[in-house]
Amino acid sequence: MTANQKYLNHVVKWNEEVIDFLKAEKVEEDENIYLRVHDFSEQLLKVTDEDVTTAELSVIEKEAVELHHEIQEYFKNRQSNGTIFLNETYIGAGKHQLPPLPYEYNALEPYISEEIMKLHHQKHHQSYVDGLNKAETNLEMARKAGDFSLVKHWSRELAFHGSGHYLHTIFWNNMRPNGGGQPSRILLREMDKYFGSFEAFKKHFSEAAKAVEGVGWAILVWSPRSRHLEILQSERHMLLTQWDTIPLLALDVWEHAYYLQYKNNRAQYVDNWWNLVNWKDVEERFLKARQIKWKPF
């Protein structure tokens, strides 16, 4: 038996012990962490009976380290569930705040400049937070006064600024320094299933982003109703969307997202953006989203 096979057998045994541990801790089989472990088990089965190569072993080792970290995070979060998650702050009408970026303003260079990130986050996203708060506050006042003469206006503002705030919050976390590549096998299988391949998905998404009329977004969504992924365009945040879907990956193609650096070459911005995609964040959103199941029609 080679050294590679011995290490592989060690990982297989560790994986079996992890599954036994999750069962002993009564982790449901449809929870995200259990699905990740099951996916890793399938990966190991493909190489168990073969003379595993050093390259394959390197991938397995990296996956095992990441999975170990995720398991630790899962149980740490579960342990704090009663003291943290059940006491999360309720956001009242007009009380939204600008979320901090998960990285420095210059962290996405050279693909997105520091100047763009500062303007985009501090000015544009802040304006959506302010607009959302204003709309919610005025609608709250309308309810108290029983005067809904401006309900059409403030409802429109609520949709526009609320969509801008929520999509930008997703957008920041959908990116990371040294991102790109491909998602892991769980999400990749869903892409293969519906789009045919990852490359087919990527081409479709890129073309959707480049073809959005005026200003808007390209968005990968999950549909709890049809149980598949889909790619949508959205003009002015809230137009051309599909209700009952959950955004997973969002690309902002408003001019303020790229014009200072790319001028009118939106296509180059879109192509370069793939180097920043945070697939781990996208997959986390996907795993949570697919737990929601509606009756299919």
Protein model, in words:
There is one protein chain. This protein is mostly helical and 297 residues long. It is globular, with a radius of gyration of 22 Å. It has a 3-stranded antiparallel β-sheet. Helix 1 packs antiparallel against helix 2. It contains 10 helices and 3 strands. Helices cover 57% and strands 8% of the residues. A hairpin with a 4-residue loop joins strand 1 and strand 2. The mean pLDDT is 90.
Main β-sheet description: 3 strands, antiparallel
Give the N-to-C terminal Cα separation.
53 Å
Beta-strand residue fraction: 5-15%
H and E order: HHHHHHHEEEHHH
* Shape assignment: globular
Low-pLDDT segments, ≥5 res: none
Structural class comes to mainly alpha
- DSSP strand tally: 3
The largest beta-sheet arranges its strands as 2-1-3
What is the alpha-carbon Rg in Å? 22 Å
Number of helices: 10
Q: Mean pLDDT score, rounded? A: 90
Q: Give the proportion of residues in helices.
A: 55-70%
Question: Can you describe this structure in just a few lines?
Answer:
This protein is mainly alpha-helical. It is built from ten helices and three strands, in the order αααααααβββααα. 57% of the residues lie in helices and 8% in strands.
